[in-house]
Design goal:
By secondary structure, this protein is mainly alpha-helical. The chain has helices at 9-22, 24-35, 42-68, 73-87, 105-120, 124-130, 135-151, 153-162, 166-183, 186-195, 202-235; strands at 3-4, 7-8. It has one domain (3-235). Strands 1-2 form a two-stranded antiparallel ribbon. The longest helix is centred in the C-terminal third of the chain and has 34 residues, at 202-235. The chain starts with a strand and ends with a helix.
Length: 236
């Protein structure tokens, strides 16, 4: 896609979409925290929370970026991201967290920022993989998406609940990134591909990762329907 002096607009769009996709779970928790504050204070709470979350996430990004260059880490991270994509079809809904009675804005910043950080730790490798280790690109993406995430918290949750199939697109996107990370992990992967005598570009293989994850989703859906039918027949 378009690029300006090495800056890829396409890669930035991928980071934005992926970060929002990975942050869907954060939205429900953020909404619960914000709703615990008086209506008149919510905008200020959101603003403080955005600042705290950006600072916390950027620190995490640069630590993860250093780890990203460790040999074999992209391979392990790519496998984990791909498995996480498949697990998205089997994840049970977590119970809502109980929000503390503390109402100070300092506590709001800490709570929102720390919650975003702890829920995003496992997602950072996927973002770095999508950006091919470009820390500036990941940082810009995070700075843009965190405010969008907080401001659109309720909208994101409502959208997923109304259109559950969107979860499939997000899972497929993770599959795409996971395969891309695996295939880009140094000379060992390149040698292995040459040994297999397979001539497929990384882009095509990554798209195959997207498709494979969707096929897993179809399998899980078919399995759940069969189990539900068996339980119904047994009850009758």
């Amino acid at each position: 896609m378009f690029s300006f002096q090495g800056f890829s607009v396409g890669a930035l769009i991928l980071i934005l979409v992926l970060d929002l996709a990975l942050s869907v779970d954060n939205a429900g928790v953020n909404a619960a925290i914000v709703r615990s504050y008086p209506k008149a204070s919510r905008n200020k709470v959101l603003m403080i929370g955005v600042i705290a979350a950006i600072v916390f996430r950027i620190v995490l990004i640069f630590v993860a970026g250093w780890l990203y260059h460790v040999p074999g880490l992209k391979l392990v991270g790519g496998i984990w991201v791909f498995l996480m994509a498949i697990k998205m079809f089997n994840v049970e809904e977590e119970e809502e967290r109980i929000v503390s009675n503390t109402r100070s804005f300092v506590m709001a910043a800490i709570l929102l920022g720390w919650t975003d950080l702890t829920m995003s730790t496992d997602n950072v490798l996927a973002l770095i993989g999508a950006a091919n280790g470009d820390m500036l690109l990941v940082t810009i993406g995070v700075i843009i998406t965190i405010p969008l995430l907080f401001l659109a918290t309720k909208a994101i949750v409502s959208l997923i609940e109304k259109y559950p199939r969107l979860n499939w697109i997000f899972a497929g996107l993770l599959g795409y990134v996971g395969v891309k990370m695996i295939l880009e992990d140094g000379q060992s992967i390149t040698d292995f591909i040459h040994w297999l005598n397979v001539h497929v570009s990384i882009s095509i293989a990554s798209i195959a990762g997207f498709v494979i994850v969707i096929l897993f989703g179809l399998y899980f859906e078919f399995r759940d329907k069969q189990l539900a039918r068996a339980v119904k027949n047994k009850a009758e």
